[in-house]
Amino acid sequence: MALISRVGKRLRRIIQRPGSVELTRYEALLPAVAKLEPELEKLSDTELTERAEKLREDLGGAKAFNDDQLVETCALGREAARRALGERAFDVQVLGTMGLLTGHVVQMETGEGKTLAGALAAAGYALRGSRVHVVTVNDYLARRDAEWMKPVYELLAVTVGWVEPAHTRDERKDAYGKQVTYGAVAEIGFDVLRDRLVTTVDDLVQPAPEVAIVDEADSVLVDEARVPLVMAGSIDHNDADEEVATVVRRLRLGLHYETDTDGRNAWLTTAGASVVEKSLGGIDLYGDSGSDRLAAVNVALHAHALLTRDVDYLVRDGKVQLINAARGRVAELQRWPDGLQAAVEAKEQVAATDRGEILDSITVQALLARYPSVAGMTGTAVAVAEQLREFYSLEVAVIPPNTPNVREDQADRIFGSPSQKLRAIEEEIRKVHETGQPILVGTQDVAESEELADKLAKADLPCVVLNARNDAEEAAIIAEAGNKGAVTVSTQMAGRGTDIRLGGTDGASREEVAELGGLHVIGTARYPSSRLDGQLRGRSGRQGDPGSAIFFASLNDDLVLSNAPDIPEGIDADTETGEITDPAALRQINHAQRVAEGVDLEIHRNTWRYTRLIERQRTELLEHRDKVLHTAYAAEELEKAQPEKFAEVKEKLDDTERLEQLSREVVLFHLDQLWSDHLAYLTDVRESIHLRALARETPLDEFHRAAIPEFHKIIAESAARASKTLEEAEITDDGIDLADAGVRRANTTWTYLVHDNPFDSDFEQTVKKVRSMMRMKKS
């Protein structure tokens, strides 16, 4: 068997299959790590810290760890964890640490100790002399993990901090000054954007990026890779067309408008266009008199027809709050592009938020691409191994569990309709609950979780609900989900970050719950990704615990209707229960899931194709901006362009340092404004670029042709505008009144995530737009 295993590993390496990182090198080092334990146990805490300092000297900024250094790093980390946390790292955690220290994405099952493995790797990189960012999926985990692991870091002579939304600039600067900094991916990204707008060096909070260790790596690097993080500046109030919202609210699907099967486009029918035109005073939507209302009608129709309350967003505290579909949480800083955001606010009749202009943005993928070294950890990496390789040049190392997984994964149960499926789920919960076995039910969205909870309450089956409405209490809810008799109904479990321990947090009834079969997981539908299915299943069977998991599905679930609606004929359901046992039904659902995964991959690829050029342009512009920020370049250029006016200002100020800063602020203002204008221009180009395919042009090539020449105008134009500002500025005793000269930055800025309209393939996007346009025209 051992020979077969070795051959299999080598074969995977040769053919470069996903998850092909060979563990033989790391496994061979485990005895050496164990051999150091007795020696390190004899050291005092001070001596252990001194030994870590000695390792720092030996590493001396090395680019990579040799075997001896890996052994020493892991042995010191294991001993530090034993003393600080009372936890001796298992061999599999040591393997995970080695995988991270050699730049891989390690796959470790839920409950196998990724947090500690990540901390030991972060300490190793820090001892090597690198600044490390441990990138988490939310702010709660960033603070929790930093505080939890801090005693380990301190024993290893490594400083640690974290960033969160409430932190001031000084607190952020202090946190980033530590050798290891924990932060949610969005929070770290927003700090990057803020730093790109500063006008003095002292206002920078982040040092140059060096190493990123990404928790929930598949979620961050794949699921959120295309999500833009945005810095906006306030312009004015974002008033939606209330009259249009009122009219559209009365429209009915099938009569006044139609939608496509994947729910991405909606269009007026002839009857709908007639109703809207009459309601708006007899205008012609497609003529000159109504053209200014057509855009408002379209965006209001999108909000009305394609966005669903309690599925896509919540209304809470008088505000529209988006729901992160991948995590089932409210995305506090996420919003749609301003026109759509305002339309949803008008639809729900809540106060409109401010409208802003985008000052800068960055995708999560581009954010992580800034780091010279990236590693990651997750429970489900193999399924996206090809994407990790394609987009990040990362390989996956599959770490075996410390104890074998004994969870019983039961066959899916499939039904003809969602209502039949829901009745079967209710009966499953009743049957299992009567035994006392704890149950975790994973639903697709807030609306489904609350509908199921209502049904269970009426059936006298009490449950606790975890969804976007109460995500602040999630840690406490999840921690008790393993108690005897517990029934927990939750939306997406990915990235929740808290283990479900049998018997609850104190484990008082652990043995009794284990004898009952452990945690029973129920999925109310298959997710658009098999990884999400796996993450839900993985909540049961933690560290060799007993457990079970089962998914229920319907041939009329959204997954099937959106991705594989053509159901083969001859699939029969039980006349009483509606259950289907024909294998063709399972094949159809599996096919729908594969189609959904393929669509998501194509979206990722298309988004990256378009944003790659923008990132190159941004990098080039930032190099110029850094020169302006850190040197006297701006003053020198303005003196050349306007020598007499510059001399006049210089005489008034009698401070060359002060004059340099004034010059810097003028040049940076125009540079930043032109970049903001460029982003707006590229957005307009991108939204219309797919129509170029009608003229047999390649949309991506056309995007490049439009984007490149416009970008090359920015630096020269910023210099010209700065020169004109100086020429026209009024000279005062303080030199220049920048505000009076028009150099006024946004008095309010904010950051948010954009739920970007995803790209289909060029052909599909063109067909949909043309079809929509044709149907909107009056016959």
Blueprint (SSEs and pairs):
Elements: H1 2-15, H2 24-35, H3 37-41, H4 45-59, H5 67-85, H6 91-101, E1 105-107, H7 114-127, E2 132-136, H8 139-155, E3 160-162, H9 169-176, E4 180-184, H10 185-195, E5 211-215, H11 217-223, E6 228-237, H12 242-249, E7 257-259, E8 266-268, H13 270-279, H14 291-306, E9 313-316, E10 319-324, E11 329-330, E12 334-335, H15 338-347, E13 354-363, H16 364-369, E14 373-378, H17 385-392, E15 396-398, E16 408-409, E17 413-415, H18 418-433, E18 439-442, H19 446-458, E19 464-466, H20 474-479, E20 487-490, H21 510-516, E21 519-523, H22 530-537, E22 547-554, H23 558-563, E23 579-580, H24 583-630, H25 633-641, H26 643-653, H27 656-688, H28 699-711, H29 714-728, E24 731-732, E25 735-736, E26 749-754, H30 762-776
Key phrases:
779 residues; eight-stranded mixed beta sheet; seven-stranded parallel beta sheet; 50% helix; disordered N terminus; cytoplasm
Describe this structure in words.
Helix content is 50%, strand content 14%. The protein contains 30 helices and 26 strands. The strands form six sheets. Strands 16, 17, 18, 19, 20, 21, 22 and 23 form an eight-stranded mixed β-sheet that branches. Strand 3, helix 9 and strand 4 form a beta-alpha-beta unit.
